[in-house]
Amino acid sequence: MIRNLRYIFKGAPALVRKSMLLEWFHSLFVAVPTGFLLLVVREFFSPAPDQQRLWTYVAIMTGLLLVQLLVSVRTFTFTNNMTYTLSTVLRMKLGRHLQKISMGAFKQRDPGDLASVVLQDVANFELIFGHTVGSLVSAVFAFAIVSVFLFITDWRLALILWLALPLVWLLVKVATFLMQRPGVQHIEARNATGARFLEYVTGIRHIKSYGMTGDRFSTLQQALDDFRRASIRTEGIPGPFILLAAAVLEACFLLMILAGVHFFADGSLSVPALVAFLIMGYRLYEPIKIVLVDYTLLRYMNISMGRIVEVLETPEQQGGRVVKPTACDIRFENVDFCYLPGQQVLHDVSFHIPEKSLTALVGPSGSGKTTVTSLMARFWDVDGGSIKIGGADIRDMEPSVVYSLISEVFQEVYLFDDTIYNNIRYGNPQATYEQIIDAADRALVMEFAWEMPDGIHSRAGENGNRLSGGQKQRISIARALLKDAPIVLLDEATASLDPENEVQIQQAIQQLVKEKTVIVIAHKLSTIVRADQILVLKDGRVHESGRHAALLERKGLYAKLWDIQQRAGGWKLNKEVVYEQASGGSVAAGGIKRDMN
Ligand SMILES: Nc1ncnc2c1ncn2[C@@H]1O[C@H](COP(=O)(O)OP(=O)(O)OP(=O)(O)O)[C@@H](O)[C@H]1O
């Protein structure tokens, strides 16, 4: 636990030290009045009680209690502020860290599980830390101070009260040991419930349309049942041990009374000392009772902290030796890669993409086209070989540098639940209003945005659900135009569009790829007949490469795919769509119109 706490408090030790100091100070003002209580009792039972002395003690105790109140308020406010500051810092740290780990490490965990680390585990930490750590520290100090007073008064009775400690400690240890597994299971069940709820809400359209409501509900019901059982176990298993520990405290107190009466009878204990023990013995156990409840909570917090530390310790992608490459040609050298251990997806892939050229990636489904583009963008790091941009290994560059070199326009467009304007602005947060409108104009976003109630400031909805597929793609192209990165990755951006939309998207893409190094994943081979280079992938290897005509002559896989597409289903292309890197570095793309024969 100490290691986890240290890790989490890294960067804020001064805050924690101040909080602990305040708690110690607070415990001092809780315990010292008890000492005066002893003096009051002694004075009270003396043969001639001194009234003035008694009033002085009472006045001092009142003063101390007032200070205690002030210190309590200050300690509470400080600890409260510190806890929420720490948890905000922690959440931001987790957010920043998640950005810096590779997609591989990111995807090893269920997204619902990761979200629950950031939200639930940090909430667990702030709730338990804020409410228990302070009182625990205070309790330990108060216990120590009251013990000193008691040992001074009568060491034998104090020792009997202390007898409870090893027993209580043992019972707490057993309780925390027993709750370790249910605690982990409880957190797992909680995450599973969150994930099932998320699945249920996000998939509600499909669940309804496939009439799966009953089935899906039972999955959720199952998760909720598991969660209920896990919650009962987490509280129920340590519960009896904690109750037993409380009973041990009561028993030792009774034992102390019996011994006190015995010592009083044999004349070795005075009345004031006995009364003091009756009052203060109970007070001695108050902090322990707090510890009993809080300690098990603390162990639960430790499980959450362990999960937070585990995420924070996931290695970040390194880089930084190369600040920015001087050119933007791309070279794959003997690249091997697997998403999962033992399942190699790319094998010894080598090729070179000259700067400002157009390269098409083609191949059967699952051949590795998307994987090649993901590796170029350093979403994952290669397992073997290297990828170089401008001659520099991308592993020597900060991932953010690599991202800044690349614009992507993929089939699946992700839009934030924000305005269209802001969604474009993500491409370059420093862009001016004019630059954003210009990008929107060039990507033909303005054509549809004008007609919306708030124009370009209309909201896109969650993941753009208020917009059509074509409109979303135009926004993503505007975003890429605004970013103006030297490398452009296109993933068959027009696959799911109607002909009219497709022509418009092609025009927008034409704007985007001017003077850039372009890599296009093409499923329709007719679009890439004029590419500078076509890489044909099969089973994660470069099976063939060359220009369109040369590949047709070879009569290999490309020629076969071409043949199939030409004959496919009686469709006739009567106007070609072509990506072409012209000698001046521009790419031409025509419109497409299909007629059924
Ligand atoms: N995140 C992932 N985790 C595990 N395996 C993956 C992951 N993404 C892709 N794969 C596997 O890697 C292989 C290559 O996938 P990739 O998406 O690169 O192919 P592709 O050529 O782009 O396919 P498509 O044309 O269907 O999009 C496939 O066998 C796929 O199952």
From TrEMBL:
It is found in: Cell membrane. Pfam families: ABC_membrane, ABC_tran. The chain crosses the membrane at residues 21-42, 54-73, 133-153, 159-179, 241-263, 269-285. The keyword Transmembrane helix applies. Keywords: ATP-binding, Cell membrane, Membrane, Nucleotide-binding, Transmembrane, Transmembrane helix, Transport. Its main location: membrane. It is a multi-pass membrane protein. GO terms for cellular component: plasma membrane. InterPro entries: AAA+_ATPase, ABC1_TM_dom, ABC1_TM_sf, ABC_transporter-like_ATP-bd, ABC_transporter-like_CS, P-loop_NTPase, Type_1_exporter. This is ABC transporter ATP-binding protein.
